[in-house]
Design a protein that fits this description.
Strand content of chain A: 15-25%
Order of helices and strands of chain A: EEEHEEHEHHHHEHEHEEH
Shape of chain C: globular
Membrane topology (chain B): Multi-pass membrane protein
Main location (chain B): membrane
Structural class of chain A: alpha/beta
Oligomer: heterotrimer
Distance between the termini of chain A: 39 Å
Helix content of chain A: 25-40%
Chains: A alpha/beta (260), B mainly alpha (299), C mainly alpha (270)
Helix content of chain C: over 70%
Largest sheet of chain A: 6 strands, mixed
Keywords (chain B): Cell membrane, Membrane, Transmembrane, Transmembrane helix, Transport
Largest interface: B-C, 66 and 69 residues
Subcellular location (chain B): Cell membrane
Pfam families (chain B): BPD_transp_1
Radius of gyration of chain A: 18 Å
Number of strands of chain C: 0
Shape of chain A: globular
Radius of gyration of chain C: 23 Å
Largest sheet of chain C: none
Number of helices of chain A: 9
Strand order of the largest sheet of chain A: 6-7-8-3-9-10
Structural class of chain C: mainly alpha
C-alpha cells in the first residue's frame, strides 16, 4: 500500500454479502453493500427491523465474517483491526459485569491490554467525569438506572481510546427524554475524543441529530438503499431538533423508505 | 497473530447452550447454529454421532479394561474386592428373580414415599404462598430438614414405623418434601406481576388466582422438583434398607458385602441404577405430557 | 439498621415461633406417648426434649469431638470432590470431545442412587478414613461439575462478544468473565453437595469405623432404650452438621459472590 493514510477510508466495505444458511431457509441478510466511512466521521445505519443494520455493524466489528465481499478497516482486514484493539463497542444493553464496581467495569479493556493499575484508576475517574457520572465509581451496576448504565458502557468503550466506536442501538431501551439527553452528551464526548463512530438506530430523528451521514437500509434482502448527507452545522444543539431543516431531513429519509 | 485469531473463534461459537450442531463453515453466527439441535436426531446414521458414539465407546473400553483386570493391577486390588463385570453379570443371571422382586419392592418404597413427600411439599408451598409471613417459616423448617442426613433418619423411622415398607416410605417422604416445597414455592412466587394485576382486574379471589395462575405457573418448577426427587427417593429407599430391613435392594446390597458376595452386591447397584434411570425417564415423559406450553418445550 | 429490624420482624420472628412451637409440640407428644398412651418404648420413639437437651449438654465434649471428626473427613472429601468437579467442568467447557465423553455420564450419575455405592467402596477400600473421603468426594463431584458447567455456559453472548471485540485471550475470557459468571452456579452445586457429603461420611461410619458421629449413633442405638437420649443427641448433631455445612457454603457464597441479585437490598428484583 503506497497510499497516504488520510486517503484511505477508515472503514471500507466492498460488495459485502451476508447469507445465513439453516436447514429450512437460506436467508440473504445483506446484499451487495458497498460503502466508505471517513476517519473521524459520525455515521448512522438506519432502517427497520430485519434490514441487516446490526449485521452490518457486527461485520465491521469482526464478530461475524461476510460470506462474500471485503471489509477493510484503516487499510487492514477487520480481524487485524480487532486484534490491534482499535474497536470500542456499545451494545443495545449495557452488558456490564455484575461482579465489578462501575470503575472496574470501565477499566476492563485496559486490564486486558495490561495497563498499569494506577493509570487505569485515573483513566476511570476521568471517563466517569466525561460521561457525567462523578461519584458513582464505587457503585455496582445494578445500583444505577438504565441510562446511567449505558453511560458506563460508553465510558468503558472509550477507555482504550478506540479509533472506531461501534454503537448498536445503544439508547433504544431508554425513554425518549433520557435518549435525547444522552444523544447530546454523546456528541459532546465525541467532540473531545474524535473517534470514528458508526451508530445503528431505527430512529430517524436520532440518526439525523447525531450523524454527518445517514446510511439508509431496507429489508428483504437487507441492502443499502440511500445515503443522506446531514448538512446541519456542528456543534449541534437541542434547539436544532425544532428547526425546519431538521423536519425536511426527516421527510426526505422517510421518503426514501416509501420508495421501497 | 493468525493462530490467535483462529483460536478465539470457538469461544464465540460455543457461547450458545448445549446445542450439538456439527461444526459448519458458517457457524460463527447465532442463527445457523441454533436449529442444529433439531436436525441431528433424525439422521439415519444416528449411532455415528460423536455425541452418542464417544461416550458409548468410552464405556465399552472402561468395561473391557475392568474385565482384563487393568484396574486391579493399577490399584493393587484383588478380585474379591472388585469383582469382574462378567462375574457381576453371572450373579445377576443366577439371582434374577430375587433381584427383580427386590427391585420392585425398593421401587415401590421410593414411589410411595416420593408421592407423599412431594404432595406434602406442594401443600407447604401453597401455604407459604398464601400466607407469606407465617407460612414462610414452614418453608425454612423444611429446608432445614433437607440438610438432615438421611442415615440419621433411618433408625428413628424404624422405631416409628417398624421395619416394613412404611419406615422407608417415611424416610423418602422426609427427604423429598423440601425440594418440592422450595421449588413449587419459587414457581408460585415467580408469577408475572402483570398477570396478577390482570387477575385483580377480573376481581378474582385468592383461590381463583391459585387455580388459574400460580399453580399453572409452578408446574415447570414442580417437575424440576419431581426429577430431583426421583433420585433422592431411590437413595432414601436404598439407604433406609441398609440397616433395618429384611428385603429390598439396599438390604441385599449391604448383606452381600458383609458376607463377601461382591458380585451380588454389584448387581444390586446395577439394578438400582437401571431402576433409577427408568423412574427418572418416566417422570420426564410425564413432564412432556403435562407442560406442552412451556417455552423450554418449543426449542 | 432499619432494614435489619424489618428483617428480624419479617423472617426471624416467625421462624422463632415455628421452632418453639415445634419443640413444645414435641415435648407434649412425648409426654402423651409416655403417660397417656403408654406406648412401649415411648421414650425411644420420641424422648423428652429437655432430656435430650441435657444429654447434649452433658456429653457435649464427646459429641463435638466425634462430630468434628465426621465434619473434617466430609470436608476433606468435599474439597477434593469440588475441586475435581470444577476441573471437569472447565475441561468440558473447553473441549467438545471431553464434554461428549463425560457429560452423559455426569447426567446419568445424577439419576443413579450414588449413596448405594457406599458399601461397595467401603468393601473395596476397607479403610474408614479413605472411604469416608472417597464417598464424600464422589458425592460432591457430579453436582458441582454439572452446576459449574451450567454456570460457565450461562455467560451472556453479548458479554462474550465484548471480550471478543477487545481481542481478549482465552485465559482472560475465563478469568475475567466465565469464572465470575459461573460463581452462582458453582455455589448452587456446592450447597447441594455439602449436606450430601456429610451424609456420605456418616453412612460410612455406620458401616464400621472407629470415630465419628455415626459410630456414636450406632453404638447408642445398640445399647438400647437406656441410651435413647444420647442416641437422639447424636441424631441431632448429625442433623446440625448437615445444616452447618449448608450454612457454611451460604456464608462463603455471600463473601465470595456478594453481587448476586438475591443478596441485593430492597427485597431483590421483585
Amino acid at each position: 500500500m503506497s497510499l497516504i493514510a488520510t486517503e484511505i477510508p477508515e472503514i471500507q466495505l466492498d460488495h459485502v454479502e451476508m447469507r445465513y444458511r439453516t436447514d429450512t431457509a437460506d436467508v440473504l441478510a445483506l446484499h451487495q453493500v458497498s460503502l466508505d466511512i471517513a476517519k473521524g466521521e459520525f455515521v448512522s445505519l438506519l432502517g427497520p427491523s430485519g434490514c441487516g443494520k446490526t449485521t452490518l455493524l457486527r461485520l465491521m466489528a469482526d464478530l461475524i465474517t461476510p460470506t462474500a465481499g471485503r471489509i477493510r478497516v484503516a487499510g487492514k482486514s477487520a480481524r487485524e483491526a480487532r486484534l490491534a484493539q482499535k474497536y470500542g463497542i456499545v451494545f443495545q444493553s449495557p452488558v456490564l459485569y455484575d461482579w465489578r464496581k462501575v470503575r472496574h467495569n470501565i477499566t476492563l479493556p485496559l486490564e486486558l491490554l495490561g495497563v498499569k493499575k494506577s493509570v487505569r484508576e485515573d483513566k476511570a475517574l476521568e471517563l466517569l467525569d466525561l460521561v457525567g457520572l462523578q461519584g458513582f465509581a464505587d457503585k455496582y451496576p445494578w445500583q444505577l438506572s438504565g441510562g446511567m448504565q449505558q453511560r458506563v458502557a460508553i465510558a468503558r468503550a472509550l477507555s482504550m481510546e478506540p479509533e472506531i466506536l461501534l454503537m448498536d442501538e445503544p439508547f433504544s431501551a431508554l425513554d425518549e427524554f433520557t435518549r435525547e439527553r444522552l444523544n447530546e452528551e454523546l456528541l459532546a464526548v465525541w467532540s473531545k475524543v474524535q473517534s470514528t463512530i458508526v451508530f445503528v438506530t431505527h430512529s430517524i430523528p436520532e440518526s439525523i441529530f447525531l450523524s454527518d451521514r445517514v446510511f439508509v437500509l431496507s429489508p428483504h434482502p437487507g441492502r443499502l438503499s440511500a445515503v443522506v448527507d446531514i448538512p446541519l452545522p456542528r456543534p449541534r444543539t437541542a434547539e436544532m431538533r425544532n428547526a425546519p431543516e431538521f423536519f425536511e431531513l426527516i421527510a426526505r429519509i422517510r421518503g426514501s423508505f416509501e420508495g421501497v | 497473530m493468525a493462530s490467535n485469531s483462529v483460536r478465539d473463534i470457538p469461544f464465540i461459537t460455543s457461547a450458545g447452550t448445549e446445542a450439538d450442531a456439527a461444526p459448519n463453515p458458517a457457524s460463527n453466527n447465532r442463527i445457523s447454529s441454533e436449529p442444529g439441535r433439531q436436525k441431528n436426531p433424525r439422521r439415519p446414521l444416528q449411532l455415528l454421532n460423536p455425541g452418542i458414539l464417544l461416550p458409548l465407546l468410552a464405556g465399552v473400553i472402561f468395561l473391557v479394561l475392568w474385565e482384563v483386570q487393568v484396574f486391579h493391577r493399577l490399584f493393587d486390588l484383588k478380585k474379591y474386592q472388585l469383582p469382574l463385570p462378567s462375574a457381576i453379570a453371572e450373579a445377576m443371571r443366577d439371582n434374577l428373580s430375587l433381584l427383580l422382586s427386590y427391585t420392585g419392592y425398593t421401587l415401590a418404597e421410593a414411589v410411595l414415599g416420593m408421592l407423599i413427600g412431594s404432595g406434602c411439599g406442594f401443600l407447604i408451598a401453597l401455604a407459604a404462598t398464601a400466607w407469606p409471613r407465617w407460612g414462610g417459616g414452614s418453608l425454612s423448617m423444611v429446608a432445614a430438614l433437607n440438610a438432615v442426613p438421611i442415615v440419621a433418619l433411618a433408625p428413628i423411622m424404624n422405631l416409628w414405623f417398624g421395619d416394613g415398607i412404611g419406615s422407608r416410605a417415611a424416610i423418602v417422604t422426609a427427604t423429598t418434601m423440601a425440594a418440592m416445597a422450595i421449588n413449587a414455592y419459587k414457581g408460585m412466587a415467580a408469577v408475572d406481576p402483570l398477570a396478577l394485576d390482570l387477575m385483580h382486574s377480573y376481581a378474582a379471589g385468592k383461590p381463583a388466582v391459585f387455580r388459574h395462575l400460580r399453580i399453572q405457573n409452578s408446574l415447570p418448577y414442580v417437575f424440576t422438583a419431581l426429577k430431583i426427587n426421583t433420585t433422592a427417593s431411590m437413595i432414601g429407599a436404598i439407604v433406609g434398607e441398609f440397616f433395618f430391613s429384611s428385603r429390598g435392594l439396599g438390604y441385599l446390597l449391604s448383606n452381600s458385602i458383609k458376607v463377601a458376595k461382591m458380585p451380588l452386591g454389584w448387581s444390586c447397584i446395577v439394578l438400582a441404577a437401571i431402576a433409577g434411570v427408568i423412574f427418572y425417564l418416566v417422570v420426564e415423559r410425564l413432564e412432556r405430557v403435562f407442560i406442552k406450553w412451556h417455552p423450554s418445550r418449543r426449542a | 439498621m432499619k432494614l435489619n429490624r424489618a428483617f428480624m420482624r419479617g423472617r426471624v420472628l416467625p421462624l422463632f415461633v415455628w421452632i418453639s412451637g415445634l419443640l413444645v409440640l414435641w415435648e407434649a407428644v412425648s409426654w402423651w406417648l409416655l403417660s397417656i398412651a403408654k406406648t412401649p418404648l415411648a421414650q425411644s420413639k420420641l424422648p423428652y426434649v429437655h432430656e435430650v437437651a441435657s444429654a447434649l449438654w452433658k456429653y457435649s465434649v464427646t459429641l463435638l469431638r466425634e462430630g468434628g471428626a465426621t465434619f473434617g473427613n466430609a470436608g476433606v472429601g468435599f474439597l477434593i470432590g469440588a475441586l475435581s468437579g470444577v476441573l471437569l467442568a472447565v475441561l468440558m467447557s473447553l473441549s467438545r470431545t471431553i464434554e461428549q465423553l463425560a457429560f452423559p455420564y455426569a447426567v446419568a450419575s445424577q439419576m443413579i442412587p450414588i449413596l448405594g455405592l457406599a458399601p461397595i467402596i467401603y468393601g473395596i477400600v476397607r479403610d474408614e478414613q479413605v472411604s469416608r473421603i472417597l464417598i464424600s468426594g464422589y458425592i460432591t463431584f457430579f453436582p458441582v461439575a454439572l452446576n459449574m458447567l451450567r454456570g460457565l455456559r450461562s455467560v451472556d453472548l453479548s458479554a462474550l462478544e465484548l471480550m471478543h471485540s477487545y481481542a481478549a485471550k482465552p485465559w482472560a475470557v475465563y478469568w475475567k468473565l466465565r469464572f465470575p459468571a459461573a460463581l452462582p452456579g458453582l455455589f448452587s452445586g456446592l450447597k447441594i453437595a455439602a449436606p450430601l457429603a456429610v451424609t456420605g461420611a456418616i453412612l460410612v461410619e455406620l458401616m464400621g469405623a472407629q470415630h465419628g458421629i455415626g459410630v456414636l449413633m450406632l453404638r447408642n442405638l445398640y445399647y438400647g432404650p437406656s441410651h435413647t437420649y444420647m442416641f437422639w443427641s447424636t441424631v441431632l448433631v448429625g442433623a446440625l452438621l448437615g445444616m452447618a455445612s449448608y450454612g457454611l457454603m451460604s456464608l462463603v457464597e455471600r463473601l465470595v459472590a456478594p453481587w448476586q441479585p438475591e443478596f441485593r437490598p430492597q427485597g431483590g428484583s421483585r
